Hints:
2 copies of one chain form a homodimer.
Chain A: H1 9-19, H2 26-33, H3 37-49, E1 53-58, E2 68-72, E3 78-84, E4 88-94, E5 100-107, H4 114-131, E6 139-146, E7 150-151, E8 156-157, H5 171-176, E9 183-187, H6 188-199, E10 207-212, E11 216-222, E12 225-226, H7 257-261, H8 263-275, H9 280-289, H10 294-302, H11 306-330, E13 334-338, H12 346-359, H13 362-365, E14 369-372, H14 379-395
Parallel strand pairs in A: 3-6, 6-9, 10-13, 13-14
Antiparallel strand pairs in A: 1-2, 3-4, 4-5, 7-8, 10-11, 11-12
Amino acid sequence: MSRRAPLSAAELSALEGVLWSHGPSRDVLASHLNYSRTRANALVAGLIEQGWLDEVGPQASSGGRRAETLQLHRSIGVLLGVDLGATSVEVAVLAPDLQVLARHGEAIDVGDGPGAVFTRIRALLRQLLAQLQLKASDVLGIGVGVPGPVDFGSGQLVEPPLMPRWDRYSIRDDLRADFDAPVWVDNDVNLMALGESWRLRRALPNFLVIKVGTGIGCGVVCHGEVYRGATGSAGDVGHLCVDPAGPRCRCGNVGCVEAMAAGPAIARLGQEAALGGQSDWLAQVLSERGTLTPEDVGTASRLGDAAANAIVQRSGALVGQMLASVVNFFNPSHVFICGGITRIGPLFLASLRQSVYQRSLALSTRHLDIGLSPLGEQAGVIGAGVLALQEVLRQSVPSRREGMAT
Amino acid sequence: MSRRAPLSAAELSALEGVLWSHGPSRDVLASHLNYSRTRANALVAGLIEQGWLDEVGPQASSGGRRAETLQLHRSIGVLLGVDLGATSVEVAVLAPDLQVLARHGEAIDVGDGPGAVFTRIRALLRQLLAQLQLKASDVLGIGVGVPGPVDFGSGQLVEPPLMPRWDRYSIRDDLRADFDAPVWVDNDVNLMALGESWRLRRALPNFLVIKVGTGIGCGVVCHGEVYRGATGSAGDVGHLCVDPAGPRCRCGNVGCVEAMAAGPAIARLGQEAALGGQSDWLAQVLSERGTLTPEDVGTASRLGDAAANAIVQRSGALVGQMLASVVNFFNPSHVFICGGITRIGPLFLASLRQSVYQRSLALSTRHLDIGLSPLGEQAGVIGAGVLALQEVLRQSVPSRREGMAT
Lengths: 406, 406
């Protein structure tokens, strides 16, 4: 990573403006910063000279002079994004304009512990860099999403329910074995929400991202910013009660939506259907492989298996029931669904939607849009890249004063 | 209301800084605006000359020169605050520093319709002004809280479930019969949240206000601002399901917390206890008056009546169960309880707390503070005053440009 002169607060605002605008030009920046065109030009000229910004050809002319599109200069380095789930990991190398340059995903088990998992993640990151003929020193910053509650300051997981051996593990120190670049860690769904927010260039101020996989979590964007809550646990919806007469969850309470509707529950119900003679298809897979995955139930459902359909519908309805409470409270404009559940098939989303529209108040759902996450599997690594880039930029301003200004 | 010169954006920021600071001085403003002391002094001098600001004596000296406390000048006028509930109304006249100059509360029935209710409210406001020897023309702005969903732009209620005859009624036009001043209308709990936020001078960025009366609603403060949601219905928690096997609510769904735990449910259960021979005390009140109120059940509970205690505990536990979901999702630092339920006695709050701490995740509740609203019955009218003052100030800036600045 090349060393650059420190940024002024105005330069930071300009670079953030470039990051968060569609096709940013000098005019867009002038308007964004509430600057005269002359002042914006001078600011941009300085940032180009320092190597922070680059121009990428004329935009479609609007009659007057051509407006060059600005972007963060590729020479400032690359970002590494890591999106760790309970059973899989996505890693990516991203350009400063958040374009994914290289990406790899594979199955992983967080139960193997942080040392083994991050040894593998570091190897994957080194491979991706090598593939792009880049060195560790080209890395500007690293963003990491993890499936549990994170203390954002220290970058450590705090008592993660799905990852007992990870409590207070220093992901930063681990990555230092291979990379000098600064590391920021956040909850995986927060980063997916940040990724979608960047995709939309903050066009939607209030929306949710719901991840349904091994666990269930929710990323919250409020007033245009990712909302982490008073102690960082906002969006922890996996243990919302959907049935006071439901089964006991490992958290100690009963009827938690995660225990009744997430991946492991789908697999367990599939197994019961196979053993109970309700599904020949699932029984055959079970006898061949000795175990069933949520994806098997999804495949059976897509093939029209009635028992599998009932399981998927039940899961969608329960997640929808939880989401109805959240929608009544939060009144988002959009809900984006992501995680392993999106591979199950369309029946899940249909059941979830039906449940939400039935249980939420008309006023909350009249303009509510529920769909799959447009960034899909890339949402997490893109969000991780945005996080890293934002923090790198902010750290380039010496002792930035917070406050209002004219 | 006297006519003043338009405000510049910097002057607006300074006046908002005075409104939202504890003991605002020139130093506090300079820091708040990120201005030099010289520049802040010039700004304040101009605002004092225009009659917007006033000085109110030296602050405790911190060793150097004395720092005068600034406040909005009393001569700019007064604010009227109206907090309308389903069965009661509070009205107040407030100084520009939000001090309550005169206040009156009484029982009212929104079922009488908007015409009758606002004829009475206008009479009450005229009486309070007369009592203070003020005229209608002294009123700078009027804030009104109503117990239903509001379209903030038009200031109209939108399909309010508790107030069918109020749909799209123009409260603005109604108040114009007596007052020239501009009128802003918001949901009652949003205004209570704004009132508490002002009391705290935004020291708590993320908290909730839960009102339990005839209905149940929630005011949400997120990132330091009242959060209204994508279509203005955020905080609509009365119809969160707390029991899928519960009774049917007038909204069409089953097990809504409002139907099971709010004022009318408490009164109904009290009546059942009286008629079922479980409470001699309630039976006697019922036979004397022919009806029971939630307050009667509260009185019986405070006297140690076992049946009344069970009703209050059940209500607290159910509201707590709803709140546990909201706390898991939103992770607030504080929850303030207000509304008629606060007159029931301490058992309600104790049961609610127990239910929240049992059902919420440890991470969400470790630092969570649940208590009664410190502003109590005045929260709504103070919030209404804050809303009116903020909007009056904002409207004094001609065609204000929104945007980032250095």
